[in-house]
Amino acid sequence: MKVVALPDKTTAKVEETAKPSPKDGEVLIKVAYSALDTAFEEVARRTFIPGSLLHSLKAKPLVAGWHFSGTIESITEGVSDLEVGDAVFGHLQYASSTRQGSLAEYITVPASETAKIPDGIAMDVAAAVATESLTALQAMRDQGGLSEGKSILIIAAGGGVGTQAVQIAKALKAGSVHAVCSTKDVDKVKKLGADMVIDRTKKDITKDLERSFYDIVFDTTGKYSFKLRYALKKKGTMVSTIPGLTTMPPVSTLIGLSGKQTKALMVRCNREDLELVGEWVKSGAIHSVPIDSEYAVKDIEAARKRQGEKKTGRVVIKVAGGW
């Protein structure tokens, strides 16, 4: 099968490699669409942190890409709730044990880590939505404990994870959803449903927020994990998308003695959360991550260039028929 291999830190090229065989409990998926994110370049450059935490850097060939939508080509023993021909979506796990990439004709995935695409959602949209939505959902609900009536502050609400976080917080019936973003994103974030939008260029959020107001502060940038603790309630939780000194023992344990928790998330793809996000998108409760541009997989270098520029959404890769 064809894959986009990363033979060195700067090159991405199409190569032939063996087609994978699914193990019991897995499905073989013919990839229709994938998408680029910041993790791609970290793996391409073989960075130790975070690259080695996102994908095995020893895989030969090294094939990156996590987002996917496609159709099931075959199923194995133990898979009873999916069928050949089903249109599915999800993302490969961001983990050092991951050795395949979705910039490939085929991938194998545990049946529990993919879900059917709801009727009415296009394949490219499905490929774009999973990672950011699951990151936001798991960070706020699982790590932060967000539930009905609780208050949350979302940092970088104009970004991919941030835009999904605002919508998902409303879907989870949060009491107050406040959002921080740049001037250019203020109107967009208001339209997504934020109860209050703070322009970070006009207010110093490291000192000028209301003290002890929020149950959860969700820092999608990983830059404010310590600086915004003053805005948390006594038993509030700071959640970051990027692990750091303050989110790992023993520092996180010491911080926790004050009653305020500091946590980080490594998103995990699972059927239940994919189905929940899919139903939200289908019903209009949330909108998908906007698509900035779409490239055939053979034009991966042009797509990488666009990924490194200022964008208005996700750079989507057409895999099937794009070689």
Helix content: 10-25%
The overall pLDDT average reads: 92
Most strands sheet:
7 strands, mixed
The global form is globular
- Residues in β-strands, percent: 25-35%
Specify the number of helices.
8
Can you write the helix and strand succession as a string? EEEHHEEEEHEHEHEEEHEHEHE
**Which residues sit in consecutive blocks of at least 5 with pLDDT less than 50?**
none
How many strand segments?
15
Main structural class: alpha/beta
Radius of gyration: 20 Å
Detailed description of the structure:
The protein is of the alpha/beta class and 323 residues long. 24% of the residues lie in helices and 26% in strands. The chain contains 8 helices and 15 strands. The chain has helices spanning 38-44, 51-54, 123-143, 160-171, 186-192, 251-256, 271-283, 300-307; strands at residues 2-5, 13-16, 26-35, 67-75, 87-91, 106-110, 115-116, 151-155, 176-181, 196-199, 214-219, 232-240, 261-264, 291-296, 314-318. The strands form 3 sheets. Strands 3, 4, 5, 6, 7, 14 and 15 form a 7-stranded mixed sheet that branches. Helix 6 (251-256) links the parallel strand 12 (232-240) and strand 13. Helix 3 (123-143) crosses helix 4 and helix 3 (123-143) crosses helix 7 (271-283). The termini are close together. The mean pLDDT is 92.
